[in-house]
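Why do we care about 3D structure at all? Because function follows from shape, and shape follows, mostly, from sequence. That is the central idea of this module. The next example makes it concrete: a single protein chain, its amino acid sequence, and then its structure expressed as tokens.
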Amino acid sequence: MAKRGLSPKTIHHRKRVLVAAAAWAIEHELLAPRVLTVPRYRPHPPVTRNHTPTEAEAAAVIVAMKGEDRLAVSILAATGARVSEVTELRRGAIDLRGGWLHLDGKTGPRKIPLFAELRVLLTPYADGSETRLFTRQGQAAPTRIHHQLVATCTRLGQTVFTSHGLRRMVVNRILRSGMDIKTAAELMGHSPGVMLSHYRRVTQEDRAAGVAKAGLGEALVEPSTCSGSGHNSGHSP
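And the structure:
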């Protein structure tokens, strides 16, 4: 069952069903009692993909993708939106006149400003209709996007990242820009606490830049003595 790709939970459930069926058959003398050795299944630990890509890594993956997959990942990399918010988009959500992209996610509706690059990307699809932006053929769209990201990263020899990695990338960028934390959290559809604990990734460069900007060594600098800066009484000699 494991080789067929079934999850550990499904395997455990089916084993219980088989044991119950065998017990029923033995009780009704339909099956001779036998002691069977059942091998224990030890599932491999789930693969965690916590890599937060750089903008260059994300751009390389986007260039290597095609069609709707490329469009979806481009929107993810530009906005930091959840993959389900992007794959559920309708063309009418692109408001060129008002300058907004309307998203509707698990924390409710919100708006992303249509900055220049995002406007260029989405303008060809902004016909005001309720038509889905993505056809969702084959696998459910979020699952497809996940598999395409993994496959493309692997093909390029890059560290694999997911749509969550792109979300972290955007959070890092907007916070490094100096955007107010509350504004950034509302833009991402999270509370400030959740955004900082789950999506912000602090690097050594962030720490160094923060210390330099804060001027933490100022108290250690001896004040300079300016000549001729004594008190001027205002009287002429």
